[in-house]
């Protein structure tokens, strides 16, 4: 039997829940509500890759500007500007693709030609071709979904994105906003199309609220399906794989 190559998440305690790390070259979805730490999770994953390998990592931002993002991540001791100068971390600003006409096919040969594509898909493909990243983050993909009110078009766009990321050779994370709470949580289209899903959520018992991480699915991996507590500390996200939430 062929051994599955695993990529350490760089998040303390998380690898113990997923057989030692994410399966390599897969596309993972991280879902969470406001303040749950989705962006911190994604940045921590990239920083771990930038510091542990000679390859490059790519962060595609669909909400925050570069200066704001770099300043916020310094709180955790992650000097992304330094990593960028060392040619290990690449920031791509996808916010400027919103509302723009599709780029010319001669520049971006596969995506961004109208139809159910978008300039954002073209930008992502272009950056992958330039950077050849080992790890890649799209944060968040909600902006892409909003470009396609029609469900069929949205599914087509997400399928193209997942296919593009999977064929890039990188291990990728997409982040997405959580909809609903607990048993009323809405299962979203992106969850079916991704290779793995990690949910960051808040759980309430009486007056107490605790943060919990749940590995909903992970291809080629035996996962711990139980909610496990996590905290956002000065060093980033820390998961407690042996503890119960309540």
What do you see in this structure?
There is one protein chain. This protein has one domain: P-loop containing nucleotide triphosphate hydrolases (Rossmann fold, 3-Layer(aba) Sandwich). Helices cover 28% and strands 26% of the residues. It has seven helices and eleven strands. It has helices spanning 38-52, 66-73, 80-85, 119-131, 142-146, 151-167, 189-193, and strands spanning 6-7, 22-23, 27-32, 57-61, 89-93, 135-139, 171-177, 196-205, 208-218, 228-233, 236-239. The protein has a nine-stranded mixed beta sheet with strand order 5-4-6-7-3-8-9-10-11, sandwiched between helices. A hairpin with a 2-residue loop joins strand 10 and strand 11 (236-239). The chain is globular, with a radius of gyration of 18 Å.
